[in-house]
Amino acid sequence: HGLDLSCSTEIVQKKKANYIQNNTVVLYPGVEEIIDILKLRKVLVGIVTASLHEQLLHSVPPGFLAKFDAIVSSEKTVRGKPFPDPYLKGLAELNLQPEECLVVENAPLGIQAAKSAGMYCVGITSTVGREVLMEADEIVGFFKDLMQSKILKSHLLP
């Protein structure tokens, strides 16, 4: 569009600094409890996010990321969601096969990525309505409802 892109790196750095300074993540009710239960049962847990790793470090509660066996942030893949690449990278880091995993997604592009990677996906209506999550294998309303997920009940939480 005829824009001067010579300062694009500076703009990205300013945007990142602004995000880190002005944003913190408030975890949805039930998130930490579910992760803790899975970890007690020796289930591997990972995060696949479009966020930059540095932003993630500065925006989540202290100690939260230490609960995860793999963290795939946006800089770890060339193509992000809806491509399967981020989830495939997560599988590689966890040394798992797609059929051994459950993805929890709150966005249509993430669901597309998980399904393209061959993974079972539970859509969660924490940020969008049920109607845009229909490609998921299951849909739940809140993180606390994950404990009632068919796949969790039958495979992970006997």
Report the biggest beta sheet as strand number plus sense, adding barrel if it closes.
3 strands, parallel
Annotation, overall tally of beta strands: 5
Query: What structural class do helix, strand and pairing data support?
Result: alpha/beta
Helix content: 25-40%
Task: Describe this entry's structure for a reader.
With 158 residues, this protein is α/β, with parallel strands linked by helices. It is 37% helix and 11% strand. It is built from six helices and five strands, in the order ααβαβαβαββα. A three-stranded parallel β-sheet has the order 3-4-5, sandwiched between helices. The chain has a two-stranded parallel sheet with strand order 1-2. The longest helix is centred in the first third of the chain and has 15 residues, at 8-22. The protein is globular.
Task: Tell me the layout of helices and strands.
Layout: H1 8-22, H2 31-40, E1 46-48, H3 53-59, E2 70-72, H4 85-94, E3 102-105, H5 108-116, E4 120-124, E5 138-140, H6 150-156
Parallel strand pairs: 1-2, 3-4, 4-5
Short description:
The chain is α/β, with parallel strands linked by helices and 158 residues long. The protein contains six helices and five strands, in the order H-H-E-H-E-H-E-H-E-E-H. The longest helix is centred in the first third of the chain and has 15 residues.
Supply the key terms.
158 residues, alpha/beta, three-stranded parallel β-sheet, two-stranded parallel sheet, 5 strands, 11% strand
